Amino acid sequence: AQSVTQLDSQVPVFEEAPVELRCNYSSSVSVYLFWYVQYPNQGLQLLLKYLSGSTLVESINGFEAEFNKSQTSFHLRKPSVHISDTAEYFCAVSDLPFNNNDMRFGAGTRLTVKP
Amino acid sequence: ETGVTQSPTHLIKTRGQQVTLRCSSQSGHNTVSWYQQALGQGPQFIFQYYREEENGRGNFPPRFSGLQFPNYSSELNVNALELDDSALYLCASSLTRTDTQYFGPGTRLTVL
Question: How close A110 gets to chain B, by Cα (Å)?
Fold first, then answer.
């Protein structure tokens, strides 16, 4: 079964600085990757996903992630963060294209944006 | 369109008791998954229901059981509560088994 490693448990950054949250997954024939965001005292919200096609995927609020098969990575980036981006970010993987019941999450990265 | 809702928001139980958590899936979604998120951890898959049938189960003991109703809402039941069951329980629904999951806000369970 797939597994996910989020390499940083906490990432502090100043407002308007760029940020990268790292995610690596274990290798498989096919893989489907997701980033979810969790704001304090809330459930998870889907940020973006890679299912197939272009390896660069974007969210509506300026985040992007690149699927890199050779590096088995799916790092999340934003060129300029805002205070409102402060949250917990989870990378997740699913390796069954016909069933989503095996989704596995990383331990999360807490992004703290400071003024 | 109403999103995924869960009730109650918070719950406090004592060891050995039983608890039932509820989830209403997003309109039109026939698949519901339940996850346990311990403090400081990512969510862990408990089980999934598709059209009222269990469709996969994670590494959780049988005292974790579930149900899905004809309107596709769902319940998670936990018997003989243990201290380690304290966690945020998340419900996620999807249009079908192959679609993206959308999460509810969760139920925070504290076992004393």
Answer: 10
Which residues 38-77 in chain A show a CB within 8 A of chain B? Answer: 41-46, 49
In Å, how far are A13, A37, A57, A88 from A84, measured between CA atoms? 12, 12, 21, 12
Q: Are strands B107-111 and B10-13 parallel, antiparallel or unpaired?
A: parallel
Question: Which pLDDT tens digit goes with each residue over B69-103?
Answer: 998 999 999 999 999 999 999 999 998 887 888 89
Nearest CB among B42, B97, B98 relative to A105 is that of: B42
Which amino acid, one-letter code, is at B33?
S
* Residue recorded with tokens 């660069």: A56
Looking at the complex, does the CB of residue A7 fall below 8 Å from at least one CB of chain B?
no
Q: What is the mean pLDDT of chain B?
A: 93
pLDDT at position A1: 65
What's the start-to-end Cα distance of chain A, in Å?
Answer: 41
Q: Quote the tokens at residue B109.
A: 């369970």
A contacts of B45 (beta carbons < 8 Å): 101-104
Q: Which residue has the tokens 């869960």?
A: B6
